[in-house]
Amino acid sequence: MDLAGFPATQQKALLDSGRASCRELLAACRTRAELTEPVVNAIPTVDWEAAEMLAGRLDDDPMLLEGAPLRGLVTAHKDLSDTAGMRTTYGSPVFADHVPDTDAPLVAHLRRCGLVSVGKTNTPEFGKGSHTFNPVHGLTRNPWDPRLSAGGSSGGAAVALACGSVSVADGSDLGGSLRNPGSFNGVVGFRPTSGSIPHDVVRDPRIRMPMSGPLGRTVADVALVLGAMTDAAVSAAPAPGKPRVAYSPDLGDLPLDPEVRAATQRAADLLADAGWDIVEACPDLSGADLCFEDLRGLFMALTSADLADDERVKATARYEISLGLTLGADRITAAVEAEDRLRANWDRFFSAGRFDLFISATSQVPPFPVGLEWISEVDGVRLDHYTHWMRSCSRITVPGGPSMSLPAGFTANGLPIGIQLSGPLGGDHSLIALAAAAEDVFGPCPAPDLGALAVLDPASLPPGPLG
């Protein structure tokens, strides 16, 4: 029985019924990690011994965390989240030796939910940029093709999931950091409604866009973890009926790689063939790009102002901090008002039963070569900033509703492509149900060829942006 290859919901059922033990599941995940980590580098910080001790305690004492919703499942926490007694670097040399005394609130909650953590998943420095590399832990590679990017910033989490090294994973998302790596690695990345995760830390009431959320191999896995995160059970039963769906692959004007455009169109056609009512329409997102950039800069200034001139920090992160520090009160007020307007536009778009769902491309490009720091051109259109190739996600961030990247197809070279499903604010449970119905139409996403990964010589692969 290949425990590590099963979805988390099936692993949980086996654990709950006594047909598998926590020790056996952890051992299966460790085998997967030892097979793939020399190439992919998704979980650079590990403590298997501590995990084995916890798994053993759960097996030996059925009363320990009895009834916890994630009891015995295996995870690793994103290296942006503090973990007590375990190195937490945020991907930055500034914090290369940082070992927190306490867990982040969400990490502490997930421990109480019964997860067995094996370590930390890799992330770009301070989570900036959808390509997972940093000077502390190096480069995370895509398991479908290790010459290509894993996306980010929850890239390590998505890769670990795709490889079966963990059962489920947590991540965070500001401009697409759950959705983009979900698309690149053939897993499900879910960004909940802004402000809906009670264990997220709110640093300033003007900052509403950064969100924690789950990743899983199936919609049901994501529903399981979302329920644990929010202390409310989430059903993954497919929505009945034939939903009315708005469809705009490029959000009206964004450049898309031709293979992304084609895969997104094929996915929409499959849903239409299944009886879904697909209508070409797009919500009014005018002003979302500037709003996102300004509020993202404000967030960086509020959290990292002391690093603005620290040359140990990568230039793109320092740029974000400096931008935030130069924002005047009028511009900040304008950005907050724009966010409110875009939220109202978003609500009107879905109101009165006009649409049940909005579909677009998750990422504007498929996985790209690891040596590139960021994408500077899409379908012949030049881009002048490292976040501009992520606007297919960041524009959807601003209105604040839930959104998900669901595996929906492949490029001609066999690379996964995700389709982005979005819903109204507070419609997280409905979006899960609709995504489950779409997953039934698309079929399950296969796993990457782990055997091929195991025989690769990492030294033969191209280096990342840092060499």
Average pLDDT confidence is 97
What's the helix count? 14
Helical content band = 25-40%
Give the class-level CATH name. Alpha Beta
Instruction: Give me the secondary-structure category.
Output: alpha+beta
| Main β sheet profile | 8 strands, mixed
Estimate the global geometry from the Cα principal axes. Answer: globular
Explain what this protein looks like in three dimensions.
With 467 residues, the chain is an alpha+beta fold. The protein has one domain (3-460): Amidase signature (AS) domain (Amidase signature (AS) enzymes, Alpha-Beta Complex), CATH 3.90.1300.10. 37% of the residues lie in helices and 15% in strands. The chain is built from 14 helices and 17 strands. The chain has helices spanning 8-17, 22-40, 48-60, 105-112, 155-163, 179-185, 219-230, 258-273, 288-304, 315-326, 329-350, 391-397, 428-442, 450-454; strands at residues 45-46, 74-78, 116-121, 133-134, 138-139, 141-142, 145-149, 169-173, 188-191, 211-216, 244-247, 277-280, 357-361, 377-378, 381-382, 403-410, 416-422. Strands 8-10-9-16-17-13-11-12 form an eight-stranded mixed β-sheet, with helices on both faces. A three-stranded mixed β-sheet has the order 1-3-2. It has a two-stranded antiparallel sheet with strand order 4-5. A hairpin with a 5-residue loop joins strand 16 (403-410) and strand 17 (416-422). Helix 2 (22-40) runs antiparallel to helix 3 (48-60), helix 9 packs across helix 10 and helix 9 packs across helix 11. The longest helix is centred in the C-terminal third of the chain and has 22 residues, at 329-350. The protein starts with 7 loop residues before the first helix and ends in a 13-residue tail after the last helix. The mean pLDDT is 97.
